[in-house]
Amino acid sequence: PQKEELVADKPKRSNSPPLPRQNAKVTPPSPPKIIIDQQRNAQYVRIGLLGEGGFARVYEVKDFRGARQACKVVTKSSLKTKKAKTKLYAEIKIHKSLSHPNIVLFKDCFEDEDNVYMTLELCPNRSLMDMLRRRRRFTDPEVRFLMVQLIGACRYMHTNQVIHRDLKLGNLFLDAGMNVKVGDFGLAALIENPGERKKTICGTPNYIAPEVLFDTANGHSFEVDTWSIGVILYTLVIGRPPFQTKEVKAIYKRIRDNEYEFPNDSSISIHVQELIQQILTPDPSKRPTLHQIVDHQFFTEGTVPSRLPSTAHDSVPDFS
Ligand code: ADP
């Protein structure tokens, strides 16, 4: 199983890309059993912990009607610096502005004395990362189904000038109907002026586009998400990320040298190999557009199931 560890740093000055931080983790006290949104006069009963990220803990909660939701909790003690506050406000502002069937719906945001809370659409089938661990890899029809939904969400984000910058299996959640929901906008950026380039080095080692690491003078833009989509496609089909090695520095070197291989396995379609090669092009301006990706033969000449059964979580579904 691969690691999906986040890196984020200031615009680069030195020549070496950042390594994931090894934060000493202090476990903050649990949020109250009954979480109260005073302004809206609403309350939520906290049920269980769904997961923990670098900055937040996410709980399953029930609203007054008994409807289940996810609630992302950030302790105020972790928001002491101006930078941390700015980052959280940016995440909220961007996530709130998005509404698409394949993006985790942002519902409300409120605070009490100790925490900031964000209520989100619940994704009870966990992430594609968990699913890949159980399945080892996916069949082509499943890959097409998942990728069409991911690319749809990404086209919507880009149309709304949002770059996600951390697309990876662990941030692609599954709702009750096994639909993809893109989540975690913690590294997302809004492009406010046409042609604007971003300079902050951020992402997750296996999925970072080469221009983020090595063309910091020029900066990066929407094409970094396209690159991650190529890495995701490879990972779903092959079962492990293309540039994966033990050491993060060695991953960066492989990304720089565009060094990845396809296993010698006749079950891997030539079409998908060709598409992956097109997407993982070092020059961002030469990568296919999201539209061109779904127009590729891998998609147009194969079946795209209309839905995935939830049994696909554990075993190969039968689409016949
Ligand atoms: P961070 O921004 O701190 O990385 P994430 O948004 O990635 O936090 O959430 C951390 C974990 O919480 C996820 O890996 C996942 O297990 C769980 N999680 C997050 N959002 C949801 C959701 N909407 N439904 C179900 N589980 C979720």
TrEMBL record:
Composition bias type Basic and acidic residues, residue spans: 2-12
All residue ranges annotated as the Protein kinase domain in the record: 44-299
Protein name as catalogued: Kinase-like domain-containing protein
Species of provenance: Thelephora terrestris
Residues of the full protein shown: 35 to 354 of 836
